[in-house]
Amino acid sequence: MDAFRTRVGGFAFGGDYNPEQWEPAVWQEDVRLMREAGVNAVSLGVFAWASLEPEPGTYEFGWLDDVMDLLHEHGISVNLATPTAAPPVWLTHLHPEVFPIMADGEPFGFGNRLHYDPSSPIYREYAARITTRLAERYSFHPALAMWHISNEYGPTAYNEAASVNFRRWLRRRYGDLDTLNEAWTTRFWGQLYTDWDQIEVPNIPRTWMNPARKLDFKRFTSDALLECYLAERDIVRSFRDDVPVMTNFMRFFRHADYWRWAQEEDAAALDIYPNPAEADSHVSAAFNYDLFRSLKGGQPWMLMEQSSSAVCQWKLNVVKEPGRMRLGSLQAVSRAADSVMFFQWRASRGGHERFHSAMLPHSGPGSRTFKEIVELGREMRLLAPVAGTTSRAEIAVLFDWDGWWGLEETHGLPRSDFSYTDTVMRHYTPLWERHHAVDMVSSGSSLDGYKVLVVPNAYLIGDEGAERIRAFARDGGTVVMSFFSGVVDDCNRVRPGGYPGAFRELIGAKIDEYWPARPHEVFTVRFADGRRATSTWWRDDLHLETGTALATYADGLLEGRAAVTENRYGAGRVVYVATLLEQAALDAVVLEAVESAGVRSRSEGVPAHVECSVRGDETYEYVFLLNHSAELGASVPLEGHGTDLLTGSPVSGHVELGPLGAAVVQRALP
Amino acid sequence: MDAFRTRVGGFAFGGDYNPEQWEPAVWQEDVRLMREAGVNAVSLGVFAWASLEPEPGTYEFGWLDDVMDLLHEHGISVNLATPTAAPPVWLTHLHPEVFPIMADGEPFGFGNRLHYDPSSPIYREYAARITTRLAERYSFHPALAMWHISNEYGPTAYNEAASVNFRRWLRRRYGDLDTLNEAWTTRFWGQLYTDWDQIEVPNIPRTWMNPARKLDFKRFTSDALLECYLAERDIVRSFRDDVPVMTNFMRFFRHADYWRWAQEEDAAALDIYPNPAEADSHVSAAFNYDLFRSLKGGQPWMLMEQSSSAVCQWKLNVVKEPGRMRLGSLQAVSRAADSVMFFQWRASRGGHERFHSAMLPHSGPGSRTFKEIVELGREMRLLAPVAGTTSRAEIAVLFDWDGWWGLEETHGLPRSDFSYTDTVMRHYTPLWERHHAVDMVSSGSSLDGYKVLVVPNAYLIGDEGAERIRAFARDGGTVVMSFFSGVVDDCNRVRPGGYPGAFRELIGAKIDEYWPARPHEVFTVRFADGRRATSTWWRDDLHLETGTALATYADGLLEGRAAVTENRYGAGRVVYVATLLEQAALDAVVLEAVESAGVRSRSEGVPAHVECSVRGDETYEYVFLLNHSAELGASVPLEGHGTDLLTGSPVSGHVELGPLGAAVVQRALP
Amino acid sequence: MDAFRTRVGGFAFGGDYNPEQWEPAVWQEDVRLMREAGVNAVSLGVFAWASLEPEPGTYEFGWLDDVMDLLHEHGISVNLATPTAAPPVWLTHLHPEVFPIMADGEPFGFGNRLHYDPSSPIYREYAARITTRLAERYSFHPALAMWHISNEYGPTAYNEAASVNFRRWLRRRYGDLDTLNEAWTTRFWGQLYTDWDQIEVPNIPRTWMNPARKLDFKRFTSDALLECYLAERDIVRSFRDDVPVMTNFMRFFRHADYWRWAQEEDAAALDIYPNPAEADSHVSAAFNYDLFRSLKGGQPWMLMEQSSSAVCQWKLNVVKEPGRMRLGSLQAVSRAADSVMFFQWRASRGGHERFHSAMLPHSGPGSRTFKEIVELGREMRLLAPVAGTTSRAEIAVLFDWDGWWGLEETHGLPRSDFSYTDTVMRHYTPLWERHHAVDMVSSGSSLDGYKVLVVPNAYLIGDEGAERIRAFARDGGTVVMSFFSGVVDDCNRVRPGGYPGAFRELIGAKIDEYWPARPHEVFTVRFADGRRATSTWWRDDLHLETGTALATYADGLLEGRAAVTENRYGAGRVVYVATLLEQAALDAVVLEAVESAGVRSRSEGVPAHVECSVRGDETYEYVFLLNHSAELGASVPLEGHGTDLLTGSPVSGHVELGPLGAAVVQRALP
């Protein structure tokens, strides 16, 4: 990735480029305007399979040769895609069994993208063939700077081929059927398997379903997709192994365990479309940016797709008002993105996404959007010194796909409206608002170096993950954990010994029963210092053992019982929240824990509507100040002296920001 | 059933026991704790098919032998299940055509329970085989006290085998196609059948559908399920005919006509899960208890499944607060249940129902729930004299599956949001609130001995049923009937001669048109005594003939026209309610009719939040006083002298009840 | 049609007659009561296929012979149906592939009507055969007055036969695959077709879909249905070509382009069921009546089906209160209907529509409804002079199926909740309220003779249609156009050159971006004269070129920018509305444009609750005054002298109307 960064001179700036949709005359205008906008990299050929192989085994590479040459001539690097996200119609016409069967039993037909069963050997064979041809032809083309393997891996398929592959995956995981039967608790409802071939993908009973089977199918689906990625990655690497290889991930995407995937990528790459109609979409964007930085242990990541303005896939697609696109781009950079890329360069005339905004919109170079793109391109060049730097955090938040699936993809919980990402965001938000640097960790991540670990609603956690958390606390760390955590093992079986099986000693309390609240039921919680707050939705029926109450219920059937607790565990401290506190009260609990653990925000005095984050290296730190308010300005205090890279002006004591304004202050480290 | 009652020493107390989910070591703890809790009966092996016949024709009875012996050793009687509700995976793997095809055309796959087409000859053959093996082996085992045939019969299937069986059923019903064509009015929309093989299950056109065909398919589905039951029942009876046989029914279950089924059971048995989150779930529970007592003509029935606390199948599963489980159990007993059984004994670690509460929860013997179970077990022994007694009523409420299906399972009515059970509950509630004893009757039941018959919204009723109601009135009975009754015959054809064809003379009025109300439309109704009330939702355009108005509309296009009428019919009195009265006004109409008919509540002065019901025999009556309020106590006047069986204390004049408190007063009859 | 009109002596009055549902004895009562009611025409045999051909190739025409003779004897003309809307069960039993496959992949089974794939060659063969037999037998029967081809053509099918037919249709449209690929923009997402056989109906991916393919499939479906109609029409015409032929259309029916169909009919015929529960259903009824008059260039049309009171197909089916059915019938007549027909003559006892009201309801001849029918029949005879006359308008509203499909049947627009008919109605309503005569036009209609053209939300419009609108303005016409018009070509491709590609010069402004509003976002719009109004939902980001602002935004990010504009274009004037104005403000804009164009309402002083419209010929005009209020009367000023045909009384100066009252004033033209 260092070579890539050097090649593009800092940040990659550009977007998806689909020249096959246009006449060659347009290509000339494209490269001219790309240069005007400072574009230095494009993702090329993402959906070009049908244009490259219009009939089975017949290839048309001429146009791509021309485009590669043209881009190279103009100094634009190419992130060349394997086009396997869009199998040509001839493939599914010849082999309809490639179409993924959906959960409702019907195939997903032709007309969208991603119309393949990832377990299909036929799909994999054809995908390998076109990948090989591309790699043969372009591995050493001077424009090639990176491989973009397929696109937004995602399909879940219930085909017969998926069942075959699922069985193979289960054999690897469990070895024999006795182990599987035990893991899946198949004695319940008489579901014992006596032959591997009896196991099918869990396609039809849409509601009540063996929760371990459903969970394993989620894991399998992620792995089946990963197998597709690995096969193509290994092909391009077999030709040349010094070009970075990635695929583009998606925001809060539940069907692929990105912790596992990221190990196989040279860079984590994110497609993200924060909804301008949602007031706090920049907060969940920040979360995703932190996650993507964390996926590869702090390595700068790639913002691979975003929109210049409105998208077209929702029911309501609001534009980004002037300044919003630039601010969002800088926000990604502030959290260690090393690229700002868009879908797509030029707006399509037809097709499903004809109203998806582009760097060059239908209104052309005179449009507001293109002018903002040109200006952003200029700023990206000013920020070049920032590229390659990253950030460090003392706070970690557990974000775990297994836990997510346990909570949302299996039936029969005390209530069915858990939202793992909402819960995680509730815990992340106070940290974001106080400008704390935060990393995400999985249940398999090392926790070395962190002072605080936040564990939101870790219903399902394996033995190793649970022990890692306990060890972190034992060794002196502070853990903030919320209700309904540590309940089941990694087979979705309730841990024995009373709730919460994995964490009873850790939190110093046992739970007799889980008490989801009735609709509209509101409880009063009284903190030790007399503050009162409300809670809703859930209460653990908590019985203290070694723990003590930080807050108790002031009413209801659990009056006087603990609602928030703390426990000394080894050298550490564990704060446990047994109910859904109103946000302000949860904020206070989380921030108290963080501050007690000795973590200081580096951004005292920064107003709430200004986001502040820092990346840097041994020499410099870069303080990003981003004003998310479109109405208010801000005067932000800043210690020491520095230079705003966007203006080149020296900064000392204060930075003044207009509405939607931004500053990137470079400060030398001592 | 008397022998069974004697065997368990009064009430059966226990639950479903699934030892195949646990190691034998756990069984020892189970029986020890069962004894501690006073458990004297368990339902065994309900889902054990795969454990008993892990491969086709290979049986493993050893573990069941051990469990039967162990239970017998500890004095626990067994209600042994045929395990046919959960066909093993090998069966559907060998014969996928056994899977029921759902209304959407897709099969219901493996992973839940009840995954069989009841018409499948293959399913029936395998079910008969395992039933035979079980009966061979255990018919004379000393632990055996009852047979539990399969479980919660329910699937509706649209398979080819279902079509074949449907045709067979139709041939039996109609004899020839001309009769069927006439019954189904197939000349409408040109649907004449000319060959039996042209008739399919009504699977696909989800909306507009021949309403007689749809109705017959409901009847057929109930009968197809019943055939499955009968086949297994007859097998176990062929080995030994002195052991009671039952299957477990469900609360307000629309797919099986329990009147027809109950004739074939030795006891009516109910699974019921009143939702603790619903304020009045105990009222609809009371209705179901009365229904189950009525199904077999007043014979005590069995509460076969309930939960100790929360369930797990809903979107929100609230716990039963302390005392609620005991109160609900006593409520069932008060309405002639002779058992208090739970699903299930020990909470499962895995599987879909891992969060369904149990007698022995995950939190173990120290849990609140287990302690309450032990206490309830003790009380059940104190109540032993009550077992076997029953109650009598002078009021009957018509509750009829044919009528239900007519109203809710066929399209094209004046409005589509009829809820038969809601309507029935609106009529039952005033009777419940005034502590009246009430029986349910079907359109085929004898009405001898009743003074009042309540007929809620009997849209569809056959000729015999209609005549039975008319004869009841002619012979001096009081009928309370609500709108849109007597409209169609049992083929869902509008009765000729003007609305309401079956009851025009009975109510003494004709109806020109049915006038459903617009949304939000509210009417004023003025009673003869000047009281005013509102009504909504519906008005019959009623024209009085021999009847007179008890109330008229005070506004709207029907101003001055009758809204509630009475009619002298033979020696009887008929009160007819032609609109949806607000509840308080309907209460008054119903209670006036009851009182005018000379029916007295035996519980004058009992507060509204205390439920009062009575069961007894020739010697004693047992007055149950159940305080459903968790906040309020109550002082309940009680005539005469008695003994509270729960405390052993004498009672005279008054009974004092705390919140959720209960008393069961034994009084000697004169 | 003139011969038909002569034959029935003015207006056709009657309904669907389904004698096959009844015994012959009932037929005698039918004709007697028909005569009593003044019935002079019936639609016969619409669903009688199974009764006419109970087995393949076996015919039973005897009953139909009898009915035809009986009707003729009683002077009742027959609109004889080909019964092909209801294929007999034997047909689909022999050939299940005739069942249409629905969008969810499952066949639409037997039990409703219209259970055929219109592309099925088998269906077409059997339909041709029964049509031929009917035509052979009855073409010269004296009762025959008209042919009623099939019924309410409608099914959309996704069968293999539909794919085959779709390919044939596409070949005719595009000639070669290169042209198709270009038209469909298949280079987007790599959807290039290289063989015709690769093209399937767009059945499965339910959301994101190639928008040109989806659009063409809508066009194809309309045409495939039309092919079925044409085949049957041509058969009956081959026997005798002097009998009018029609099929019955439906209100706001989106699946058939009635402009194209109407060319092939001898009369446009409408089935319409205005919902009495909706306060303004008479306004959209008026729109449909105007549309049906316009479909064949002003020729009187046929009201072929309506209900006498409630229908049964909705969730809530409210009755028509006394007087409402008569008023609605006169409303159709006032807008040039030459018939008043009902579904159906006699209410069915069974079948799906047993609660659909009829001319002769279940309550029989003594019912309110039948009395109103008899009275209406009498009035229709009084109105005989009106039959055959029509009306003229100076205002045209564009109503175009292609535009409808573009807006609602393709995905990926800036927002997904467009309702074309709602938008059209928003523009039509002020014209209706001011009693303006309005015609509808398609994008292919001649605009000669109109002064004003209203173009609501013409998102998709072909080159010729766009040029026709521009020419209309250039030549001096006034155009009122609303936002998001002229965006894409007839292949659903964004027009190049900036938005709105087709109309940038016409409106004198370019649009940089489309700005859908956030939920609950409200904007203030200030008109040049100081009036203020609100707008919501949408804003064009409009940049004036030759146009000028009639109103500007007074707040928001577009403050000061144009919201409503006018532009001089050639000799004409173009008013453009760039946001969703509140209704009152839109009314003002539309009416100002109309008045400025010199169009005067002929009904000054008519109250808002009275509808006024006029039809006439060279000699007389007939002014219809219809009071839609059930509470208020009205005194309506009327110039000149005339005679109220309903009462025979002379009218001068004023007409007094009671609630729901009506007058039809005949006035001699100078």
From TrEMBL, chains A, B, C:
Beta-galactosidase C-terminal domain span: 610-667
Keyword Hydrolase appears in the UniProt entry: yes
Keyword Ion transport: no
Record field: catalytic activity: Hydrolysis of terminal non-reducing beta-D-galactose residues in beta-D-galactosides
Keywords associated with the record: Glycosidase, Hydrolase
Annotated InterPro entries: Beta_galactosidase_C (IPR013739), Beta_galactosidase_Trimer (IPR013738), Class_I_gatase-like (IPR029062), GH (IPR017853), Glyco_hydro_42 (IPR003476), Glyco_hydro_42_N (IPR013529), Glyco_hydro_b (IPR013780)
Signal peptide: none
Any single biological process term in GO: galactose metabolic process
Residues where substrate binds: 113, 151
Source species, domain of life: Bacteria
Active-site residues annotated for this sequence: 152 (proton donor), 305 (nucleophile)
Membrane spanning stretches: none
Residue ranges of every copy of the Beta-galactosidase trimerisation domain listed in the record: 393-599
Residue ranges annotated for the Glycoside hydrolase family 42 N-terminal domain, each copy included: 16-381
Entry's Gene Ontology cellular component terms: beta-galactosidase complex
EC id: 3.2.1.23
Gene Ontology molecular function: beta-galactosidase activity
One protein family per Pfam: Glyco_hydro_42M
Family: Belongs to the glycosyl hydrolase 42 family.
Protein name: Beta-galactosidase
Naturally occurring in which organism (per UniProt): Nonomuraea deserti
